[in-house]
Amino acid sequence: MKYEHSELVFWHLYRFGLSNKFDTEFPQALSAKVAPEEFAASMKRINGVLKKTLPMNMKWLLCGCLCCCCTLGCSMWPVVCLTKRTQHLIEKVLDWENSHLYHKLGLHWKLAKQRSDSNSMTEYVLLLEFIPKIPIHRPD
């Protein structure tokens, strides 16, 4: 027996593949699953991580672009490392959210790479997957 696995995708403004703010509007598909206040608190925590890390990423990006010719591209490494750090922080927040609330409701947050429709860039999106419930009372 196969179970359908559906998901919701959240995104907003992207810079260099990582969003600087995810959309906080409550989707109608979650109306019977999660309270709007819980969803808003989760999105606020995720956007808080982005708000805290984005200014430093932008400063290093500007510095890296200015010095890129002199350093043969090595000045861009801090930007790459800070972006990976931001991804890791968001994944930690999502793991916390999953373990404390969303797994109990049959939902799973994750940060995933997705190819952009308009160009060839890869961007990061938040996926909220609906985990199907396995019927344990049915015989095999």
Task: Report what the structure shows.
By secondary structure, the protein is an alpha+beta fold. The protein is 43% helix and 21% strand. The chain is built from two helices and five strands. It has helices spanning 36-71, 77-100, and strands at 7-10, 13-15, 18-21, 107-115, 122-130. Strands 1-5-4 form a three-stranded antiparallel sheet, covered by helices on one side. A hairpin with a 6-residue loop joins strand 4 (107-115) and strand 5 (122-130). Helix 1 (36-71) runs antiparallel to helix 2 (77-100). The longest helix is centred in the middle third of the chain and has 36 residues, at 36-71. The radius of gyration is 18 Å and the shape is elongated.
The proportion of strand residues reads 15-25%
Helical content stands at: 40-55%
Strand order of the largest sheet: 1-5-4
Based on Cα principal axes, name the global outline. Answer: elongated
* Euclidean distance between termini CA atoms: 10 Å
Number of strands: 5
**What would you report as the Rg, rounded to the nearest angstrom?**
18 Å
Structural class: alpha+beta
Largest sheet: 3 strands, antiparallel
The chain-level mean pLDDT equals: 78
The topology string of helices and strands comes to: EEEHHEE
Uncertain segments are 1-5, 11-16
Tally of separate helices: 2
